[in-house]
Amino acid sequence: MDNKIKFIPLFVFILCLFSSGIEAQTNLIKGVVVDSITAEPVSYVSVYLKGTTIGAMTDDNGNFEIHTTTTKGTLIISCIGYKEYSASLSSFKNIEDVNIKLVPTQYQLAEVLIKPKKEKYSKKNNPAVEFVKNVIDNRNENDPKKTKDYYSYERYEKFSYALNEFDEKKLEKGVMKKFNFISQYIDTSEISGLPILTVSKKEMLEENYYRKSPSDHKKIVTATRREGLDEVISESNLETFFGEVFKEVDIYENNISLFIQRFVSPISSIGPSFYKYYLMDTVMIDGEKCQDLGFVPMNSESFGFTGHLYITLDSTYFIKRAHLNIPKNINLNFVDFMSIDQEFSRTEDNTRILTKDDVIVEFKVTEKSKGIHARRLNTYKKHSFDKPTKDGVFDHPEDSYVEDIARFRDENFWTEHRHTPIQGKENNVKKMLQELREVPLFYWTEKLVSTIIAGYIPTSKDTSLVEIGPMNTMISGNAVEGARMRFGALTTPALNKRWFGGAYLAYGTRDQEFKYQGQLEYSFHDKKEHQNEFPIHSIKAMYTYDVDQLGQQYLFTNKDNIVLSLKRKKDDRTLYQRKAEILYKKEFYSGFSYSLNLRHKNEYGTDYVRFEQVRKDGNVLLKNYQMAEAELKLRYSPNEKFVQMKSRRIPLTMDAPVFYISHTYARKGILGSDYNFNRTEIGFEKRIWLSAFGYFDTYFKAGKIWDAVPFTLLEIPNANLSYTIQPQSYSLMNPVEFINDEYGSWDITYFMNGLIFNRLPVIKFLKWREVASFKGLVGRLSDKNLPTAENNFFVLPEGCGTLSRMPYMEATVGIENIFKLLRVDYVWRLSYRNNPNISHNGVRISMHITF
Question: Between β-strands 400-402 and 216-228, what pairing exists: parallel, antiparallel or unpaired?
């Protein structure tokens, strides 16, 4: 399973399934929009019900469909270049056969006539394009973050999501009768006017401080509270994820980050090549005359916006307001509708100030489901360009930190300090949840969802001192052990906030061996949720006896993961290993960390991997060898974002660069070490965005083993024997097929986000996205590491070889976003195709849930 799966899309999926189970009867509004003069269909027209967020865009043939629970209301059709059309639904004889004729309009500026529709769009001699180029040229002139020595403001955030178009009648049927009390919490959306049920609410007050030189930005959360169904998810993980998914929108940047994707800003430097621009009417906003600039992406499936910018007609080209929507046909998962509204003001010296950022999103799994209505409203006050009076603002190690009192603010504080009032029944979420949890069906369903997300089983109804897991490792299998059963557990901060213990016991039905691990960790500061939460500053002792699979490194998952049990090759290049370790690790808020690992290990040969020493008087079979090693690792990843699980961390994005260097040292004779050993390795990884045209995920690694050692201590490339897609591994390489003492590797994958498929008729409606990758390995094996009678090294296993001047290379092409959750790759082996018992090509698959 692909470890880039994001847990919040899964959570949205669960919520949407729940909401679809209580959806109301839907009605279909269906029709076609044509030009009243030419009778030709009009593409990409906005069709919606007045006063709601319910609507659609027409397709290439002018057709549209709207699913709604109502048969009343006013249908609005608006399109750049046409007069707005409105009509009551009751005026149509058949709402499933609506024929709309739009009347064209003309817009004039500087005596140049523009007819946006039914003419071939051209950038040349287009006054709208010239106008937007002036906006782009002036976009950085009045940015207080770049022009002022200091800049500060207070941000208030209100985030909520609700079950959309909630039908109260469903509470009268079947199992839903147990939840009929929910009816008292049904509210009316202030946006759409339709019934909704708010299931989560969050409020936050945050002080922001910018400094020009040296450049710095600090956030201080002075008040925060949340309540809702999302309480089953770790608060820190939720904050991290929503911080990425619902980032503050900055239209002045080239790329706008939303839903862990990149959208092209309408005033991006590539905007004139990505968008079509139209000059609309002039309007008065706050007493200033502004030009209404309309825009649509040239390809409606790509990651861009439709909308309007309202720009002053003076020499500053100041944007007073921005309204952005996503195209209906955009290749974006689970998002049925989104709008962004921003408002700006300016000071006497024309410095721009953002005063409002309002994002509304409707998440859906299927077209007919009601889904989730989410809204994140940011308002900004108390703007200042003075040096902060608060002591030590820029001295704090964290870029964003929460004051101790922030989570304990009372209702009087919120009433006094929140920027916008709470609407309707939003404040009743906590009370509703209390009632829901008194219903056993809901209580145990919530517990089940929490367990699935966490991966561990609680041992107490309330607060568990010990948890059992990970669940996905309890049953697995391999060629040596046969069926492998594992039982593990760890302690929680509820038992002790600084001392943590963990253990597992495993048994293989084929080798009939017990394996085990025990660990004890001391954290130098208190933990809130689990021992692995950032930042780690701890010392840990571990003792392990288990199998060691040569040439198989499980970088992004656990080796016991049941999904990896199905293999393309027999995985019998296996040793038994007994290992004792002491690990000290410290992480810093800057993204720098270091660790020191002291370990002693015993490797035991098996029938599958024999320690056969080469000697002049005849080869000798050894039972085991041992090493005592010290490893120092330095790592730097500024602004890294990840989901913190109890046993590991999953990168949320790869936007932050990761640099690391490590060195391992062992001296023969110290604590029984059989060999001298020095190994140095450096690595780098980074996601490189190409705006809305996708991104590259890149991994690079190089290293050298300086001493003469047997093959088990050399670099054995990571061979992926499963049928799943695993980064930084080779899908068609056999275990221990190559060994090296000098090596360099690369893994480059291009996720094209539908760059080609979005332009192909029929195919584009599947919402598939293209993937291509190229990975390889260069290396060599020095003569000193070849087994001889002089060095007494082990005989190389059968099928083991070395690299020549030709690198080992693999290439793949694939399709992701199949049914919104699958990725399928076809892999070619490009070199060393004549090696024995190898695969030349193959199909690999993974689950990949993203927006």
Answer: parallel
C-alpha gyration radius of the chain = 30
Q: What is the pLDDT of residues 356-394, one digit of tens each?
A: 999 988 888 777 777 788 889 999 999 999 999 888 899
Indicate if the pLDDT at residue 538 is higher than 50: yes
Strand 98-102 and strand 27-35: the pairing is parallel
Residue 535: asked if its preceding bond is cis (omega within 30°), the reply is yes
Asked whether 339 and 323 are in contact (CB, 8 A), the reply is yes
Q: How far is CA 559 from CA 243, 356, 565, in A?
A: 31, 48, 9
Please give the distance of CA 422 from its chain centroid, rounded to a whole number. Answer: 30
At residue 747, φ and ψ (nearest 5 deg) are -145, 110
- Distances from the Cα of 505 to the Cα of 476, 546, 556, angstroms: 13, 10, 22
Strands (E), 37-192: 46-49, 55-57, 63-68, 74-78, 85-88, 98-102, 107-109, 112-114, 150-163, 187-188
- Its pTM stands at 0.85
DSSP 137: H
**What is the rounded end-to-end Cα distance, in angstroms, of the chain?**
17
Q: Are 634 and 623 in contact (CB under 8 A)?
A: no
Using CA atoms, how far apart are residues 588 and 145, in angstroms rounded to an integer?
Answer: 26
In whole angstroms, how far apart are CA 757 and each of 43, 332, 367? 19, 13, 21
SS3 content of the chain, % helix, strand, coil (to 5): 15, 45, 40
Encode 460-478: b = buried (16+ Cβ within 10 Å), e = exposed. Answer: eeeebebbbbbebbbebbb
Grouping H, G, I as helix, E, B as strand and the rest as coil, residue 618 is: coil
CA–CA distance, 46 with 58 (Å, rounded to integer): 7
* DSSP classification of residue 785: G
Residue with tokens 């695969």: 839
* Cα-to-chain-centroid distance, residue 251: 21
Q: Residue 261, SS3? A: strand
More confident position, 391 or 845 = 845
Residue 118 clears pLDDT 60, i.e. is over it: no
The answer to whether 343 and 419 have CB atoms below 8 angstroms apart is: no
Q: Show the DSSP H helices in 71-212 as ranges.
A: 127-137, 144-147
Name the pLDDT band for 111 (thresholds 50, 70, 90).
very low
Q: Contact, 375 vs 246, CB < 8 A?
A: no
pLDDT at res. 23: 47
DSSP string, 192-203: T-SEEEEEEEEE
Burial 109-124 (b: 16+ CB within 10 A, else e): beeeebebbeeeeeee
Position 778: which residue type?
V
Contact 217, 250 (CB under 8 A): no
599 CB neighbour count, 10 Å cutoff: 18
Q: What is the rounded CA–CA span in Å between residue 581 and residue 90?
A: 75
Q: What are phi and psi of 90, to 5 degrees?
A: -70, -15
Averaged pLDDT, 586-599: 96
* Helix extents (H) in 280-409: none
Contact 676, 707 (CB under 8 A): yes
